[in-house]
Amino acid sequence: LERPGPKAPASLRNRQDRVPESWLTVDNLREKVAVITGGASGMGLAFAHRFAAAGMHLAIADIETPALESAVGELHAAGAEVIGVRCDVSEAESMQNVATEVYDVYGAAHVICLNAGVSAPGTMAELKLIDWEGVLGVNLWGIIHGIDAFLDKIMIEDEGHFVITTSVMGHTCYPTSGPYTAPKHAAVSIAETLYNELSAAGSQVGVTALCPGLVNTQIVDSIRNRPEHLRDRAAALPSDEDQRVREALLKEFATIALESSEVADLVHDAILDDTFWVFTDNRHDESISRRHAEIRERKNPSQ
Description:
Largest sheet: 7 strands, parallel
Order of helices and strands: HEHEHEHEHHEHEHHEH
Strand content: 5-15%
Number of helices: 10
Shape: globular
Number of strands: 7
Helix content: 40-55%
Strand order of the largest sheet: 3-2-1-4-5-6-7
């Protein structure tokens, strides 16, 4: 995509024209630049709308070109300053291209939401290497590539905030969730480490670890975005019974899941308040507490 939407004002593209101020003392995000991976749908698109309402300039990155074009058009129609960049976060060069585009257009980046995520349910016995590669490429390397592309630049400016989308699954372990749980645990570790390093350096750059529970998104259908070389063409198609069970579960899920817009409000407030931990509900508190207790007491894991 070639920079859909209008360019930002010239003053934003020229860093020397911006008035320096402490990031932690600003009371709003107006005129700041937000970069959002997985920004064309789900929580990412909700973040974009929330940040636009706060007067931010947007750069949304996504692997789905039609969804990206639709999201850019939707945001632009709502009055947002926005560009869209197609990006495969599992590839370092692709993420670097996003950073280049953002700095070329806006001259700055302030809020970096590393939000792209996919899933591949199944037991360890059932899963194939391509399942692990597909999920780890997005959920782990997507975060690493995002930090690599933006951290140095943001640290030089000494203002900004990283929002790393982890999950309650980064604090728990359940059967059939290996490829998803493993990088989410890693994402929590990366977020904590980054926070501690920036704090030790006296940096004004903040970090939020977003740990969603049940949120109404399309992640259950994320296989649609898996690269061709990681698709299992020999896999059997789901039976009619499998489809009925899946649809029933999704229907039940939708009745208790939080809306993405509600999560976006939490993220917006966390950035302004410099809050590290953001959980979207307390449904998994007991499981998390039990796991921590089992670790302290050196007990075998319980389901």
